[in-house]
């Protein structure tokens, strides 16, 4: 039916439903697949057209329109972002992840039929439903509206499917249920319907016909509402309602029962196939090899269970936390309760001497000094201010905007300050898994699935082997039935050939290389808790580093001070730098010393100075002292809103001064990352003029813009650039005399006083790199592995360290992307592109953006970007079309929150990078878990999330892990090709012998499977990696043309030689044809052709092992693997012995039909030698030279566009933007028509790095 409707949907997160449409995977951006036209489907913003019941999405300008389509029934319906009736499906967004929900109601008849079929199929049908949850839902429930559903089918954008029941709580005479609504209020409902998914509760709102997560309910709360709650706290009725909705405030990791873990492990397709194979072998009296496979499987299962339980316990011990807290409830006196009983809306009292926060809470009064290292990674005390009490309608609380008023779960309260005898109150905002700490834990528990092409190719190839097995299965049945074989033998032989083609030992064999790499890493003090990740490390092409504690030592070091000499008659000049502020010569520059002594945000906690590490280092270098009150009888915790200002005093003799100087800090303008400066208003009590002084410090280019030009030395830019290029952190210091009164100093705006300054000088700091950092970064750069810094520190420090260690390269221009001011309410925030200090000019050259066809990788772009967290958030929100381009060329991400670090990793993965993350703090956990390979340098919180934990306290472990990963990946490729070739070689032997109605004997099978293949496979992975990182990673595509041609070609060679021996043996004069004795089973009989094929095939198995055991550039040569070489020498000797002159007892146990002529047995050795020669020449001459080398040389002669379709996503992006950053303004201009008018500035400033 042709609907003939076209319409557009607004840019809104709320879905619009269309009842008569059908979307397929290719039509929808999120890959949503519906199975019947009657199901309602959520549509995203964009333009749509309907034709023949299909909705085809077209990208167009999102415009806000009211949609009034006609349905198939002719009834006109109005859509305004949400259907007016409860739909069968919907979508919700949780943690930036789209979840698609379908409602179902349990059908007793369907469920009964499902279990009957399960019983009739001996559980096979239920096993299939376990593997495919969507089928289980379809077989046991019927589709219905979400309002009546008792179970939900949940699917994410990665097509992962889950099944969750919808639970109901019915109100009674004792407890009335309630639903949270805006403004922190509850409305009464008769029934509370909800479901839980990934530790979050989702409530059903009948008026809106949708589920809403409890982590998104703290919206539309005005400031005054918090203060109203703080007066009396929650009532008993509120407590009962909120407890039913939010549950207990516990972040706990439940230990799954061992039997559950066991069943999940055993019911995987791999172990089910192993169980099938073992059953076939035992029924065929092939007990020895079957027992070996069972023992290997049991060991593997036991190790997996051990590692899983160990990780659960470790995570549980590190995240579980509880304490007793004081709360106000029912307007009564404070009462002490367990933190597990806290509920949103509770009023808690913060102890004066600190505590660990057990929830997210909004500060109502006083000030609180908090250590937020769990969030930022920097142990810098942060002062939290009380939320203002205002009735202004525009004063609506936002967690992001008002974080300075919020105390976050997991952070440490160091001290509170308020009026003496008064309590510091906070209102609980979020509890349990909805808190910031809970989000971090959930990101560890439910990471984004990591996809490696190798794994998907592996299953595809196993599917291909399955097709071959089916052909062999059919061939066996037909040939044996035609010969009149009994039914049991037909079934056993047909099933047995499946186990021949698809070797059950394949996964165990492929783990050999991984286990060998894991053992080598363990000897280097690098521990891996997820061995499967080692293979992934072989494909790593981007490594993200945290800065503090990872690339650098903790903290900054004072380097020097460079004062400016101001003269009335001469130009201002820089004097020689001094190594300290506490030297006699600095008395000539007293203003500079006073500025450093007063311009800071330090505070005293329990008698100890605390604050920004940079301020601490500078202040301690002056040797001055800080006194925050002139009355020592006032406790620190009561120093709130006091009139006596903080005072700094010099020590007699310090800085060349022979008397004590006392300065009072009257006003402080705190540091702002957007303004890049801070300042203080200071008064000297001994100053007879009673004037005041403004001291200001900040980024050199910002301070220079605020200073009088006459006070700036002519070589200022050169000095700044010179320091920056040497990796120093620069701070410019200036001052200004203020002729204002004390009352006015408390009211004046910073913009009124932070101008017309006089430059005092520059202070240089260095964030010392760890000794190994530069060498490792150089090693990674040389191997064409991109290095990225993702840190919580400020962008200037990050850029300085990045340039010093080599992440920012001196041959490239570096730019900082910043935010401007919004021009109008309907415009986007403009972006500012500022050039950072660089070691050379005019570096951008279109010719530098070329493609190296031989290496199959782009040369690095000609420029590098850096961005701070707030700007990154703006780009993510308002410039989503540029985000993937940014992460492709941005190498420094500063001031990043844990969620933003994780987002950077996810976006890098989205453009098809294989990402490693190296960090050492709790704020790195989410990124460590999200990365393909997380590497923790700490055994504390970060080790929970990271597959790798290094006891080496620097980044030397990174290239070690990558080298081992590459060796393991190459080993996995080799062992897979070897095991596949071994199984198909054996399949060829069996098919040839089935033609005679015979087979290899049990002991011949055992010799091949156990003594040859298993022994070789066990030694295969012990070839160590090369010491040098190769320029490019090994291929990750198993089903490449070269790999497939190698396997197919080798098998053709195997087939030709086996067939030749098979036919040639039958042509010998002494040959006795095989005949089946009456009453004796086929598999127990011997044949001369079987003996000849067996002897030749033994050499083929060993030859394939040598061919596929590749060495450089990722592994050392096969001769470095002494165990494999020794094994091969012994096995070849045994095979020669068995072929030439096997002893009688060996021949009897091997069930040989001996070949009578010695000359023919020697002939088999000659054939084997010729096979070895042909196989080796084919692999080296045809595959490695003709296919790989010559093809790459041919490609190198052709243009990039010829192979553009073969490039991955990041390479295609780099191809278009790598020459210059002009794509930023052009991309913005192209989008201006869609989002209103805005500007984009591209300005070059003096930038300190």
From TrEMBL:
<dbReference type="InterPro" id="IPR001757">
    <property type="entry name" value="P_typ_ATPase"/>
</dbReference>
<dbReference type="InterPro" id="IPR044492">
    <property type="entry name" value="P_typ_ATPase_HD_dom"/>
</dbReference>
<feature type="transmembrane region" description="Helical">
    <location>
        <begin position="288"/>
        <end position="306"/>
    </location>
</feature>
<keyword id="KW-0479">Metal-binding</keyword>
<dbReference type="InterPro" id="IPR004014">
    <property type="entry name" value="ATPase_P-typ_cation-transptr_N"/>
</dbReference>
<feature type="transmembrane region" description="Helical">
    <location>
        <begin position="112"/>
        <end position="132"/>
    </location>
</feature>
<dbReference type="InterPro" id="IPR023299">
    <property type="entry name" value="ATPase_P-typ_cyto_dom_N"/>
</dbReference>
<feature type="transmembrane region" description="Helical">
    <location>
        <begin position="1160"/>
        <end position="1188"/>
    </location>
</feature>
<feature type="transmembrane region" description="Helical">
    <location>
        <begin position="1003"/>
        <end position="1023"/>
    </location>
</feature>
<dbReference type="Pfam" id="PF00122">
    <property type="entry name" value="E1-E2_ATPase"/>
</dbReference>
<feature type="domain" description="Cation-transporting P-type ATPase N-terminal">
    <location>
        <begin position="222"/>
        <end position="286"/>
    </location>
</feature>
<comment type="similarity">
    <text>Belongs to the cation transport ATPase (P-type) (TC 3.A.3) family. Type V subfamily.</text>
</comment>
<dbReference type="GO" id="GO:0006874">
    <property type="term" value="P:intracellular calcium ion homeostasis"/>
</dbReference>
<dbReference type="InterPro" id="IPR006544">
    <property type="entry name" value="P-type_TPase_V"/>
</dbReference>
<dbReference type="Pfam" id="PF12409">
    <property type="entry name" value="P5-ATPase"/>
</dbReference>
<feature type="transmembrane region" description="Helical">
    <location>
        <begin position="261"/>
        <end position="282"/>
    </location>
</feature>
<feature type="transmembrane region" description="Helical">
    <location>
        <begin position="1119"/>
        <end position="1140"/>
    </location>
</feature>
<dbReference type="GO" id="GO:0046872">
    <property type="term" value="F:metal ion binding"/>
</dbReference>
<dbReference type="GO" id="GO:0015662">
    <property type="term" value="F:P-type ion transporter activity"/>
</dbReference>
<dbReference type="InterPro" id="IPR047821">
    <property type="entry name" value="P5B-type_ATPase"/>
</dbReference>
<protein>
    <recommendedName>
        <fullName>Cation-transporting ATPase</fullName>
        <ecNumber>7.2.2.-</ecNumber>
    </recommendedName>
</protein>
<dbReference type="Pfam" id="PF13246">
    <property type="entry name" value="Cation_ATPase"/>
</dbReference>
<dbReference type="GO" id="GO:0016020">
    <property type="term" value="C:membrane"/>
</dbReference>
<keyword id="KW-0597">Phosphoprotein</keyword>
<feature type="transmembrane region" description="Helical">
    <location>
        <begin position="458"/>
        <end position="482"/>
    </location>
</feature>
<dbReference type="InterPro" id="IPR047819">
    <property type="entry name" value="P5A-ATPase_N"/>
</dbReference>
<dbReference type="GO" id="GO:0019829">
    <property type="term" value="F:ATPase-coupled monoatomic cation transmembrane transporter activity"/>
</dbReference>
<keyword id="KW-0812">Transmembrane</keyword>
<dbReference type="InterPro" id="IPR059000">
    <property type="entry name" value="ATPase_P-type_domA"/>
</dbReference>
<keyword id="KW-0547">Nucleotide-binding</keyword>
<dbReference type="InterPro" id="IPR018303">
    <property type="entry name" value="ATPase_P-typ_P_site"/>
</dbReference>
<feature type="transmembrane region" description="Helical">
    <location>
        <begin position="1087"/>
        <end position="1107"/>
    </location>
</feature>
<keyword id="KW-0460">Magnesium</keyword>
<dbReference type="GO" id="GO:0015203">
    <property type="term" value="F:polyamine transmembrane transporter activity"/>
</dbReference>
<dbReference type="InterPro" id="IPR008250">
    <property type="entry name" value="ATPase_P-typ_transduc_dom_A_sf"/>
</dbReference>
<dbReference type="InterPro" id="IPR036412">
    <property type="entry name" value="HAD-like_sf"/>
</dbReference>
<keyword id="KW-1278">Translocase</keyword>
<feature type="transmembrane region" description="Helical">
    <location>
        <begin position="494"/>
        <end position="516"/>
    </location>
</feature>
<keyword id="KW-0067">ATP-binding</keyword>
<dbReference type="GO" id="GO:0005524">
    <property type="term" value="F:ATP binding"/>
</dbReference>
<feature type="transmembrane region" description="Helical">
    <location>
        <begin position="975"/>
        <end position="997"/>
    </location>
</feature>
<feature type="transmembrane region" description="Helical">
    <location>
        <begin position="1044"/>
        <end position="1067"/>
    </location>
</feature>
